Amino acid sequence: MKTMKIMGLMMAAAVLVTACEDDDKNEVENTYKSESFDESEWYAGGELGTSFNASANAFEQPTPACEEKFSQSFKLGEYLFEKNFNTNTDGAFCGLGPVAVRPGCLYCHPGYGHGKRQTSYSGTQHGNGYLLVIYDKQTENYIYSVAGMPQTLAYGPFKAPIDEKQITIDWLDYTDDWGNTFPDGETYSLIYPEVNIPRSAYYAPLMAMRNGEYVEVGVDEVGVKLESTIGVYGTGLTDAIPDDSITAQWVKEENAYNKGYIKNFRTDWFENGQWKSYYSNSRQGDGTKYVRRYTYAMSRGPILDAAGANAIWNITNVTRSDRRYHYLDLAGKFYAQQSMADADVQAAFPAWIEQIDPDHNHPTWHTEDVAQNIWNYLTSTELDVEMDDAHYTDFMVWHRGLAVPAARDLDDPDVQLGHDLFRSIGCAQCHRPSWTTGEDHIQDPNKFFTSDDQMPRYPHQKIWPYTDFVQHKLFMVNDIRTGWCRTTPLWGRGLCKLTEGCEDRLHDCRARNTLEAIMWHGAAESDARSAVEKFRELTKEEREAVVKFVDAI
After folding, report:
1. Residues 6 or more apart from 439 whose CB is under 8 A from it?
2. Would you say 463 and 437 are in contact if contact means Cβ atoms under 8 Å apart?
3. 141, 208 Cβ separation under 8 angstroms
4. How many Cβ atoms are within 10 Å of 120's Cβ, its own excluded?
5. SS3 assignment, position 309
């Protein structure tokens, strides 16, 4: 620390001398160079994955590898991401509903980035990246009578699983162990959300799984939290990291846990150097096991069957050839049971289904038993395909082809000081700076894509995502469900204010800027506590240098 302060003073003195020697210069020569700075970090996504666009469209650019071979497909996939779907039965963007989380992708990913903090919930509010997390407080498992990503929108004769008008989000002040004050007197503010959904907002009974059986529970037994979407850019590059490299990182952190260097580790997932919990897909795929790497909960493996591949189906409920069924609830029956018994739905269903299936290609939707017809339609696994294979391929080429913005201002003395402080106080232990991609052969648990030539690829690239792909606990008040959360990549986030108009961070957007995000890491039980304590002891100028560095990468 003392060395850093002395270097900072030397830097300031050198700058002053240089400026005095030549007042005509518009820029002062850089006089501080970090010995540990790697010049390759300018290329955050490596040579094959970096864009040097730092405008409001920074997150929307194709990688050089994608642009070289998949330019037209990328543009078509981008179109699918940016436009709303509709309730038409054919044509472009058809098939929205019968219930949905959003009508399109940009609602959750403004500027292709992180969702924005909200004070109310609306499925048609641009920038609302929130997904409702509704779970059984006793088991911490999701409630089975709503979807894992619950819907608040409905179309045709159907009713929304949750009435979003009854959802309230309250933002509460929080005071940390240090009274929200640094030793030098500078103060900061911390806030967090509490979400309430009354029983009257739920369409179907609240059903939990306990001891292997469905049990109806009271609304007071149900917890509700928020998880915001993260940026979609660069995920193709992290998909190219070999599974054994991620496993090696888990081994390293398990060793640290066993030696007492860290207090928290997912022994239920990983033990004695081996994975105990993998991602697999047995419905569309063959059950092959893959290392977990995507979503806060690390609930997904390779990108071709990860969040984006899933969302283009279940957020909009638009079917494709490998998913010819609706996304309704985790049990697959409670929403359908409620709908088939609903007199309003029964009254409107016959006329509506005639528009959906005028040629009666699905006879079981048109019998004299209207309630049964509703059940047959909602639970069908032979729905018409609404997004064809070519469009889905374009969408995934776009998804895997999104570049990472290049790092910025790495030659700025303050940024380089922040670069060194970030490492010296311990932030890089979880926000691991760099990884090297492997051969990058295509992996798709869904078994839709099988050939390397179907997707942009990024072999042998040094990339700088600043994540360890491990789950940690921060022990924040009203924390994420289960408390375990994957370390979020930091790359590109400093451009969010330009691309999205906000700087909101963390899983529920409780941090309104980088400084608040850092301070939310400081709970006594958190393994990041030591780093936050060291951050607090920095001078104001040094703290600002750390923030400036994080925003530069």
Report:
1. 242, 459, 460
2. yes
3. yes
4. 11
5. helix
Tell me the backbone φ, ψ of residue 162, rounded to 5 degrees.
-135, 130
Buried b (16+ CB within 10 A) or exposed e, 232-241: bbbbbbbbbb
Please, are residues 486 and 297 in contact by the beta-carbon 8 Å criterion?
Answer: yes
Structure tokens at 431: 């926000």
What is the DSSP pairing of strand 50-51 with strand 404-405?
A: parallel
Distance CA 277, CA 14 (A): 54
**Residue whose tokens read 């002062």:** 28
Per-residue confidence band for 92, with pLDDT thresholds at 50, 70 and 90: confident
The beta strand positions in 188-339, using DSSP E, are 190-196, 207-210, 213-216, 222-228, 270-271, 274-275
Calpha distance 32→415 (Å, rounded): 10
Q: Name which of 31-40, 114-123, 472-481, 483-492 the model is least confident about.
A: 31-40
CA distance 536 to 98: 51
Measured CA to CA, the distance from residue 58 to residue 129 in angstroms comes to 19
- Whether the pTM exceeds 0.85: the reply is yes
CA gap 551, 519 in Å, rounded: 16
Domain boundaries, the chain: 1-32, 33-333+379-552
CA–CA distance from 97 to each of 147, 167, 303 (Å)? Answer: 14, 21, 25
* DSSP E strand boundaries for 406-480: 435-436, 462-463, 471-473
Strand blocks (E) in 261-316: 270-271, 274-275
Residue 237 and residue 46 in contact, taking contact as beta carbons nearer than 8 Å:
yes
The CA distance from 230 to 80, in Å, is 19
pLDDT 10s digits, 18-28: 333 333 333 22
263-281 pLDDT, tens digit each: 999 999 999 999 999 999 9
